[in-house]
Design goal:
Helices cover 65% and strands 4% of the residues. A hairpin with a 2-residue loop joins strand 3 and strand 4. It has 390 residues and is mostly helical. The mean pLDDT is 86. A two-stranded antiparallel sheet has the order 1-2. It has helices spanning 2-5, 35-47, 49-57, 61-88, 92-97, 122-142, 145-164, 168-183, 186-208, 214-224, 226-246, 277-308, 320-333, 342-359, 363-375, 383-388, and strands spanning 11-16, 23-29, 108-109, 112-113.
Length: 390
């Protein structure tokens, strides 16, 4: 709401020829209207639907296991068109819908192609496969006999397919987190993920104060690959432009309609391309919006860590670790990419719901009794008394 109310002005782009009185109007970006208050709020509620669904229906260990199974099965089937695009070039979206959804040059890596099928970017596809690899690992760990062998083959298959996707970041995620997931105690996993959550929160502050050693990071990237260093440098340069723009309205941001983007002051042409989710939210909704979004995503990690500190490992769901790692991987990836998807909110909601169950172990039973009581004939309790059961 304050973002809309503080961005009512229209951004006008015009050219003044020397000292002559002639002014050439080149374009404008509209100010936000009061009607945008409703659309922005409704959009945020729609975005959060998976969060509420995960909190209510996937908080149990069985629900967490179902998520992992669904990811593995979906990724195996989705790898079929992925193989087609790796071999023939990304064309599936063009064949089905008649257009290509991104810049084709970004699908070319290491002398081959990166698949994206129907997704927005090859990085999104690779990250989805990463989720499935992590899920296959925990399912293999927790299964026995034939099922364990079956999930082991799925893990090897998806692991190999991920490397064919040619995304360095996701390969690093898998190589780092699979050993942690398979051989580290759940409390150790959670501590690592809490640290990553803290990094996600403070990263914009560190970037604003120029604490991040960008030169050293670029040197390491150049030592690995000049191509990857160029890509990283392009992202960081755009972040600098976007940070300067966001600094003009740091509290509530610039709002929608592309007002947060850097444009040529005369022509209105966009000269910045935001990549990281954090800089998009920071520029659009300011510090308040960023803290609200990243806070809601990281809150389940901190809340679960608080509930597990004094509990035995045997009392904790073995499947919660993969959801925690998936959420943390996404938080880390969002520092460079806009990879926040509904599934991320689903994981955050499921983690929060499980942490609540640890704190209130009889919560589901109380809800069931309340529901049955409401159906009973002759229930004379007031609505306030019924709610007090919760």
């Amino acid at each position: 709401m304050p973002t809309v109310l503080t961005n009512r002005d229209t951004l006008i782009f015009e050219t003044v020829q020397n000292a002559a009185p002639t002014v050439f109007f080149n374009g404008a970006v509209p100010g936000l209207r009061l009607i945008d208050l409703g659309s922005v709020v409704v959009n945020q509620l729609i975005v959060l639907i998976p969060f509420f669904v995960g909190r209510r229906f996937f908080a149990s260990p069985q629900g967490q296991r179902e998520i992992a199974i669904a990811l593995v099965i979906a990724a195996i089937f989705y790898s079929i068109p992925g193989f087609v695009e790796i071999r023939l070039s990304p064309q599936v979206n063009t064949w089905v819908y008649g257009f290509f959804q991104h810049d084709f040059s970004q699908t070319i890596r290491q002398g081959g192609y990166r698949p994206l099928v129907f997704l927005e970017h090859p990085l999104w596809y690779a990250l989805f496969v990463t989720y499935a690899v992590l899920s296959a690992a925990i399912l293999m760990k927790m299964s026995k006999d034939k099922q364990q062998v079956r999930y082991g083959f799925a893990l090897l298959y998806l692991f190999g397919f991920l490397f064919l996707c040619k995304s360095l970041a996701t390969q690093i995620y898998v190589l780092c987190f699979i050993p942690i997931l398979l051989w580290s105690p759940i409390k150790t996993q959670l501590r690592i993920c809490v640290i990553l959550g803290v990094i996600a929160i403070v990263y914009p502050m560190l970037r604003n104060f120029e604490v991040i050693p960008l030169d050293a990071i670029m040197a390491q990237a150049e030592a690995y690959s000049a191509e990857r260093a160029q890509s990283l440098g392009y992202r960081l340069d755009n972040e600098e432009l976007m940070l300067a723009r966001a600094a003009e309205k740091p509290l509530f941001g610039w709002g929608g309609w592309g007002r947060n983007l850097v444009r040529d002051i005369q022509t209105g042409e966009i000269i910045s391309i935001p990549d990281g989710r954090w800089i998009i939210v920071f520029g659009t909704f300011g510090w308040f919006g960023y803290i609200a979004e990243i806070g809601l995503l990281t809150l389940p990690l901190f809340y679960l860590w608080q509930q597990m500190r004094h509990r035995d490992v045997e009392d904790v769901s073995p499947y919660i670790g993969v959801l925690v790692i998936v959420l943390s991987v996404t938080l880390l990836d969002m520092l460079l990419n806009a990879t926040l998807i509904p599934f991320t909110w689903l994981c955050a909601g499921a983690i929060l719901g499980y942490a609540e169950q640890l704190k209130y172990p009889n919560l589901d039973e109380q809800r069931r009794k309340l529901f049955q009581g409401n159906l009973a004939i002759g229930d004379t309790r007031t609505p306030k008394e019924q709610r007090s059961v919760m």
